[in-house]
Amino acid sequence: MTVIVRDVRAQDAAGFARVRRAALPFMLATAEQCAFDWAHAHPKGHERPLVAVTGDGEVIGTVQQRIAHDAPEPDVGSLNVYVSPAHLHRGAGTLLLHAAEEHLARQGARTLYSWVLDAPENLAWAERRGYAPSRSAYFLRLDLAAAELPPLQDPPAGVELRTAQDFAADPRPLFVLDALTTADEPGDVGTLLDDYAHWRATTWEHPLFDRALTTVAVVDGVPAAFSAAQTDGLGRYNSGMTGTAPAFRGRGLAKLVKNASLHRARAAGCTEAFTGNDTGNGAMLAVNRWFGYEIAAREVRHVRTIG
Q1: Which of 38, 132, 243, 278 is 20 to 30 A from 219 via CA?
Q2: Is the pTM of this model over 0.85?
Q3: Tens digits of per-residue pLDDT, 266-277?
Q4: Where do the DSSP E strands lie in 144-191?
Protein backbone atom coordinates (compact mmCIF):
# COMPACT_ATOMS: atom_id res chain seq x y z
CA MET A 1 0.00 0.00 0.00
CA THR A 2 1.27 3.45 -0.94
CA VAL A 3 2.65 5.70 1.81
CA ILE A 4 3.00 9.43 1.19
CA VAL A 5 4.92 11.97 3.31
CA ARG A 6 3.62 15.54 3.31
CA ASP A 7 3.37 18.65 5.47
CA VAL A 8 0.74 18.61 8.18
CA ARG A 9 -2.66 20.16 7.61
CA ALA A 10 -5.02 21.50 10.24
CA GLN A 11 -7.21 18.40 9.99
CA ASP A 12 -4.22 16.17 10.78
CA ALA A 13 -4.03 17.24 14.44
CA ALA A 14 -6.17 14.39 15.78
CA GLY A 15 -4.31 11.78 13.74
CA PHE A 16 -0.94 13.27 14.69
CA ALA A 17 -1.82 13.01 18.40
CA ARG A 18 -3.21 9.51 18.00
CA VAL A 19 0.04 8.24 16.46
CA ARG A 20 2.09 9.90 19.20
CA ARG A 21 0.00 8.27 21.95
CA ALA A 22 0.20 4.85 20.28
CA ALA A 23 3.94 4.98 19.65
CA LEU A 24 4.89 6.72 22.89
CA PRO A 25 2.16 6.16 25.51
CA PHE A 26 4.28 7.74 28.26
CA MET A 27 3.84 11.29 26.94
CA LEU A 28 0.72 13.40 26.69
CA ALA A 29 -0.57 14.26 23.23
CA THR A 30 -3.84 15.90 22.20
CA ALA A 31 -5.15 17.39 18.98
CA GLU A 32 -5.45 20.78 20.65
CA GLN A 33 -1.82 20.62 21.78
CA CYS A 34 -0.58 19.68 18.30
CA ALA A 35 -2.48 22.51 16.63
CA PHE A 36 -1.22 24.96 19.26
CA ASP A 37 2.40 23.86 18.84
CA TRP A 38 2.22 24.22 15.06
CA ALA A 39 0.71 27.69 15.32
CA HIS A 40 3.23 28.94 17.90
CA ALA A 41 6.51 27.50 16.58
CA HIS A 42 9.42 29.91 16.89
CA PRO A 43 10.39 31.21 13.42
CA LYS A 44 14.08 30.64 14.15
CA GLY A 45 13.36 26.97 14.84
CA HIS A 46 12.34 26.31 11.21
CA GLU A 47 9.97 23.63 12.46
CA ARG A 48 8.25 21.59 9.79
CA PRO A 49 6.05 18.79 11.16
CA LEU A 50 5.37 16.07 8.60
CA VAL A 51 2.99 13.14 8.44
CA ALA A 52 3.05 9.82 6.63
CA VAL A 53 -0.37 8.93 5.27
CA THR A 54 -1.86 5.97 3.45
CA GLY A 55 -3.67 6.26 0.17
CA ASP A 56 -6.96 6.84 1.94
CA GLY A 57 -5.50 9.67 4.02
CA GLU A 58 -4.97 7.86 7.35
CA VAL A 59 -2.09 9.32 9.37
CA ILE A 60 0.25 6.46 10.31
CA GLY A 61 3.50 8.28 11.09
CA THR A 62 4.80 11.66 12.24
CA VAL A 63 8.04 13.57 12.57
CA GLN A 64 8.79 16.65 14.61
CA GLN A 65 11.91 18.56 13.65
CA ARG A 66 13.52 21.84 14.56
CA ILE A 67 16.71 23.85 14.62
CA ALA A 68 17.83 24.28 18.23
CA HIS A 69 17.78 28.08 18.07
CA ASP A 70 17.78 28.28 21.88
CA ALA A 71 20.96 26.20 22.25
CA PRO A 72 24.39 27.75 22.87
CA GLU A 73 25.85 25.43 20.22
CA PRO A 74 25.35 26.39 16.54
CA ASP A 75 24.07 24.26 13.65
CA VAL A 76 22.19 21.76 15.84
CA GLY A 77 18.93 20.17 14.78
CA SER A 78 16.62 17.58 16.27
CA LEU A 79 14.06 15.21 14.84
CA ASN A 80 11.85 12.51 16.34
CA VAL A 81 10.09 9.95 14.17
CA TYR A 82 7.05 7.99 15.37
CA VAL A 83 5.07 5.35 13.49
CA SER A 84 1.87 3.73 14.67
CA PRO A 85 2.67 0.19 15.91
CA ALA A 86 -0.08 -1.16 13.65
CA HIS A 87 1.69 0.19 10.56
CA LEU A 88 5.34 -0.71 11.06
CA HIS A 89 7.54 -2.18 8.28
CA ARG A 90 5.89 -0.18 5.51
CA GLY A 91 8.70 2.34 5.02
CA ALA A 92 6.91 5.26 6.67
CA GLY A 93 9.66 5.88 9.23
CA THR A 94 12.43 5.93 6.63
CA LEU A 95 10.51 8.32 4.38
CA LEU A 96 9.85 10.67 7.31
CA LEU A 97 13.48 10.55 8.42
CA HIS A 98 14.88 11.36 4.99
CA ALA A 99 12.45 14.25 4.49
CA ALA A 100 13.32 15.70 7.90
CA GLU A 101 17.07 15.37 7.35
CA GLU A 102 16.84 17.16 4.01
CA HIS A 103 14.84 20.01 5.53
CA LEU A 104 17.21 20.48 8.49
CA ALA A 105 20.26 20.32 6.25
CA ARG A 106 18.81 23.11 4.12
CA GLN A 107 18.43 25.18 7.29
CA GLY A 108 22.11 24.77 8.12
CA ALA A 109 22.04 21.88 10.61
CA ARG A 110 25.21 19.82 10.79
CA THR A 111 24.51 17.81 13.94
CA LEU A 112 21.20 15.96 14.32
CA TYR A 113 19.82 14.48 17.54
CA SER A 114 16.97 11.99 17.79
CA TRP A 115 15.39 9.99 20.62
CA VAL A 116 14.97 6.24 20.00
CA LEU A 117 13.13 3.81 22.27
CA ASP A 118 15.50 1.25 23.77
CA ALA A 119 14.42 -1.85 21.87
CA PRO A 120 16.74 -3.95 19.66
CA GLU A 121 14.75 -3.31 16.49
CA ASN A 122 14.61 0.45 17.06
CA LEU A 123 18.30 0.74 17.92
CA ALA A 124 19.31 -1.28 14.87
CA TRP A 125 17.07 0.89 12.66
CA ALA A 126 18.82 4.04 13.88
CA GLU A 127 22.30 2.52 13.50
CA ARG A 128 21.64 1.50 9.90
CA ARG A 129 20.80 5.11 9.14
CA GLY A 130 24.02 6.51 10.53
CA TYR A 131 22.97 7.45 14.06
CA ALA A 132 25.17 6.65 17.06
CA PRO A 133 23.88 6.27 20.63
CA SER A 134 24.54 9.02 23.13
CA ARG A 135 22.94 9.64 26.53
CA SER A 136 19.76 7.92 27.72
CA ALA A 137 16.64 8.72 29.73
CA TYR A 138 13.81 6.92 31.50
CA PHE A 139 10.07 7.26 31.20
CA LEU A 140 8.55 6.78 34.65
CA ARG A 141 4.95 5.94 35.53
CA LEU A 142 2.97 6.14 38.76
CA ASP A 143 -0.47 4.59 39.30
CA LEU A 144 -1.83 7.71 40.90
CA ALA A 145 -5.18 6.18 41.75
CA ALA A 146 -3.62 3.41 43.85
CA ALA A 147 -0.34 4.98 44.98
CA GLU A 148 0.36 5.66 48.63
CA LEU A 149 1.75 9.14 48.29
CA PRO A 150 3.90 10.53 51.08
CA PRO A 151 1.72 12.56 53.47
CA LEU A 152 1.54 16.27 52.90
CA GLN A 153 3.94 18.25 55.05
CA ASP A 154 3.80 21.80 56.31
CA PRO A 155 6.41 23.97 54.59
CA PRO A 156 9.44 24.98 56.64
CA ALA A 157 9.57 28.42 58.18
CA GLY A 158 9.89 31.10 55.51
CA VAL A 159 8.59 28.82 52.75
CA GLU A 160 5.14 29.21 51.20
CA LEU A 161 3.49 26.88 48.68
CA ARG A 162 1.59 28.54 45.87
CA THR A 163 0.22 27.49 42.49
CA ALA A 164 1.21 28.91 39.14
CA GLN A 165 -2.25 30.44 38.94
CA ASP A 166 -1.27 32.72 41.81
CA PHE A 167 1.20 34.34 39.38
CA ALA A 168 -1.36 34.92 36.63
CA ALA A 169 -1.08 38.70 36.88
CA ASP A 170 2.69 38.56 36.36
CA PRO A 171 4.28 35.18 35.53
CA ARG A 172 7.73 36.66 34.88
CA PRO A 173 9.15 35.39 38.24
CA LEU A 174 8.31 31.86 37.09
CA PHE A 175 10.06 32.49 33.78
CA VAL A 176 13.19 33.53 35.68
CA LEU A 177 13.01 30.38 37.81
CA ASP A 178 12.42 28.18 34.75
CA ALA A 179 15.45 29.73 33.01
CA LEU A 180 17.66 29.14 36.06
CA THR A 181 16.73 25.48 36.43
CA THR A 182 16.76 24.70 32.71
CA ALA A 183 20.26 26.10 32.28
CA ASP A 184 21.91 23.14 34.03
CA GLU A 185 19.44 20.40 33.15
CA PRO A 186 21.29 17.25 31.95
CA GLY A 187 21.27 16.87 28.17
CA ASP A 188 23.32 16.72 24.97
CA VAL A 189 22.24 20.20 23.91
CA GLY A 190 21.94 23.09 26.34
CA THR A 191 18.93 25.39 26.43
CA LEU A 192 19.08 29.12 27.05
CA LEU A 193 15.73 30.67 27.96
CA ASP A 194 15.99 34.39 27.28
CA ASP A 195 12.79 35.23 25.37
CA TYR A 196 10.06 36.00 27.88
CA ALA A 197 7.44 36.83 25.26
CA HIS A 198 7.95 33.49 23.51
CA TRP A 199 7.95 31.62 26.85
CA ARG A 200 4.72 33.27 27.87
CA ALA A 201 3.06 32.48 24.54
CA THR A 202 4.26 28.87 24.24
CA THR A 203 4.75 27.64 27.82
CA TRP A 204 2.50 29.72 30.04
CA GLU A 205 -0.39 29.62 27.56
CA HIS A 206 0.18 26.02 26.43
CA PRO A 207 -3.04 23.95 26.49
CA LEU A 208 -1.44 21.11 28.46
CA PHE A 209 0.03 23.41 31.13
CA ASP A 210 -2.10 23.11 34.27
CA ARG A 211 -1.62 26.24 36.37
CA ALA A 212 -3.83 24.97 39.19
CA LEU A 213 -1.69 21.84 39.70
CA THR A 214 1.70 23.45 39.06
CA THR A 215 3.18 24.08 42.50
CA VAL A 216 5.76 26.70 43.47
CA ALA A 217 7.79 27.03 46.66
CA VAL A 218 8.34 30.68 47.53
CA VAL A 219 11.14 31.45 50.00
CA ASP A 220 10.99 34.87 51.61
CA GLY A 221 8.96 36.12 48.67
CA VAL A 222 11.21 34.64 45.95
CA PRO A 223 10.11 31.66 43.78
CA ALA A 224 12.71 29.01 44.60
CA ALA A 225 11.41 25.67 43.31
CA PHE A 226 8.55 24.43 41.16
CA SER A 227 6.91 21.32 39.78
CA ALA A 228 5.27 22.06 36.43
CA ALA A 229 2.14 20.03 35.76
CA GLN A 230 0.61 19.03 32.45
CA THR A 231 -2.78 17.37 32.07
CA ASP A 232 -4.68 16.15 29.02
CA GLY A 233 -8.26 15.99 30.34
CA LEU A 234 -8.15 12.18 30.08
CA GLY A 235 -6.96 11.53 33.62
CA ARG A 236 -3.27 11.65 32.68
CA TYR A 237 -0.83 13.94 34.49
CA ASN A 238 2.78 14.66 33.56
CA SER A 239 5.52 16.39 35.53
CA GLY A 240 6.87 18.60 32.77
CA MET A 241 9.74 19.87 34.92
CA THR A 242 10.68 19.87 38.59
CA GLY A 243 13.49 22.22 39.42
CA THR A 244 15.10 24.24 42.17
CA ALA A 245 17.13 27.40 41.74
CA PRO A 246 20.80 26.76 42.53
CA ALA A 247 20.78 29.04 45.59
CA PHE A 248 18.01 27.01 47.24
CA ARG A 249 19.09 23.44 46.56
CA GLY A 250 19.65 20.91 49.32
CA ARG A 251 16.57 21.97 51.33
CA GLY A 252 14.12 19.32 50.12
CA LEU A 253 12.05 21.82 48.13
CA ALA A 254 11.79 19.57 45.05
CA LYS A 255 10.09 16.85 47.11
CA LEU A 256 7.87 19.43 48.78
CA VAL A 257 6.48 20.94 45.58
CA LYS A 258 6.17 17.67 43.69
CA ASN A 259 4.32 15.99 46.55
CA ALA A 260 1.87 18.85 46.80
CA SER A 261 1.30 18.79 43.04
CA LEU A 262 0.68 15.02 43.00
CA HIS A 263 -1.83 15.28 45.83
CA ARG A 264 -3.64 18.06 43.99
CA ALA A 265 -3.61 16.03 40.78
CA ARG A 266 -5.22 13.03 42.44
CA ALA A 267 -7.84 15.24 44.08
CA ALA A 268 -8.59 16.68 40.61
CA GLY A 269 -9.29 13.17 39.23
CA CYS A 270 -5.98 12.27 37.60
CA THR A 271 -5.30 8.51 37.68
CA GLU A 272 -1.91 8.17 35.93
CA ALA A 273 1.22 10.22 36.48
CA PHE A 274 4.23 10.30 34.16
CA THR A 275 7.62 11.93 34.25
CA GLY A 276 11.02 11.58 32.61
CA ASN A 277 14.56 11.53 33.94
CA ASP A 278 18.01 11.49 32.44
CA THR A 279 19.52 8.18 33.54
CA GLY A 280 22.44 10.07 35.05
CA ASN A 281 20.26 12.37 37.16
CA GLY A 282 20.49 10.31 40.33
CA ALA A 283 19.03 13.00 42.56
CA MET A 284 15.71 13.26 40.70
CA LEU A 285 15.53 9.49 40.16
CA ALA A 286 15.78 9.07 43.93
CA VAL A 287 13.03 11.65 44.43
CA ASN A 288 10.74 9.87 41.98
CA ARG A 289 11.42 6.45 43.53
CA TRP A 290 10.42 7.99 46.86
CA PHE A 291 7.03 8.82 45.35
CA GLY A 292 6.61 5.30 43.95
CA TYR A 293 7.33 5.94 40.27
CA GLU A 294 8.50 2.89 38.33
CA ILE A 295 10.50 2.76 35.11
CA ALA A 296 8.13 2.25 32.18
CA ALA A 297 10.64 2.48 29.31
CA ARG A 298 14.08 3.74 28.36
CA GLU A 299 15.02 5.83 25.36
CA VAL A 300 18.43 6.57 23.91
CA ARG A 301 19.48 9.87 22.38
CA HIS A 302 21.19 9.30 19.05
CA VAL A 303 23.36 11.69 17.08
CA ARG A 304 24.46 11.98 13.46
CA THR A 305 26.74 14.46 11.72
CA ILE A 306 25.70 15.52 8.22
CA GLY A 307 27.07 17.80 5.53
Answers
A1: 278
A2: yes
A3: 999 999 999 999
A4: 159-163
DSSP run (H or E) holding 98: helix 92-106
Would you tell me which CATH number, out of the four given (3.40.630.30, 3.40.50.150, 3.20.20.80, 1.10.10.10), belongs to the domain 142-298? 3.40.630.30
Q: How much is the mean pLDDT over the chain?
A: 94
Q: Among residues 232, 213, 214, 235, which one has the least CA distance to residue 33?
A: 232
Task: Kindly tell me if the per-residue pLDDT of 164 is higher than 90.
Answer: yes
pLDDT band at 74 (very low <50, low <70, confident <90, very high): confident
Distance of CA 114 to the CA centre of its chain: 13
The answer to whether residues 114 and 133 touch, using CB atoms and an 8 Å cutoff, is: no
- Per the CB < 8 A criterion, the answer to whether 132 and 185 are in contact is no
Amino acid at 30: T
Domain boundaries, the chain: 3-109, 142-298
- The CA distance from 132 to 57, in Å, is 33
Question: What's the CATH fold of domain 3-109?
Answer: Aminopeptidase (3.40.630)
At residue 17's C-alpha, the angle toward residues 235 and 213, to 5°, is: 35
